[in-house]
Here is the input.
Amino acid sequence: MVKYCIKRILLSLLILFGVSIILYTLVWFMPADYLYNQAITAAGTTGNVEEIYQNLRSYYGLDGTMFQGYFGWLWDFLRGDLGVSFKYQRPVEEVIFENMGVSFMLSFVALILELLIAIPLGVKCACNQYGKLDYTATVFTMLGISFPTFFLGSIVIKFLAIDLGWFPAGSLPPDPGQGENIFLWLLNFGWHLVLPMFVLVILNIGAWMRYTRTNTLEVLNADYIRTARAKGLSEHSVVYKHVFRNTLIPLVTLLAGTLPSLFGGAMITETVFNIPGIGNTAYQAMLVGDIPFIMGYNMFIAFLTVIGILITDVMYAVVDPRVKLA
Here is the structure.
């Protein structure tokens, strides 16, 4: 196990190095240029845009070639310095961790709701394959998977927030003021997150349900399940004592891969509902070509991804003794 983890960590470092090269190359050729827009604003009517622009690039260490810029960024990154965001004028890591909390809470609660609904529904559909429940659930989940995030979010805002006025259309309430009831503020805060959470659940529940259904069908056709039935066990015992337990094995490993989504934010959902999470923050930075923040945020996601994959592999060997890491 230790030898395997060391090998995977070394491979992960190589992957992160390759990802950083690709990311920096893409960012370098982005059409948006925050520094140039700042130079236009600073120049005003004087017309010396190019001079101010070159001074800004020199100040931020971007006046050399792309290779010089990359290795300069890489050296700072290895020292734990992600740079200062152009747009937010603060250290990148500070902006990331400050806005990560809302995204984590939103994604985590949505994930719990998805699992509580999708797993029992997937098992039930598998046990009643080609029945009315199976067909109905499949149709609705496929519709949920097919909807683009911005489309479903806009529909939800239109009907539930604007037309009916049941929920806020977006954003979050300001921080509680002095003397304000914290309990009421928390209720209001949670009420603002209902719609984006609803959209996340609808969009993701289908994938979890189909995955659970497929794995349950595989287990139901296994020899030991037929043996359990032949011994006279009730269908309830067969399903929830033997089938359900073994269905959870691939689901446990899949959960480890959700790490990037929990901390990385739901970019489109947060943008549609104007939620000040890390996803929306990163999107606003990408629009203006904020190189330090884009690099820092995407490397943060890449790091979480390789960690999630490593945890997935290890967890699969832990929960399923038939799998050997060697």
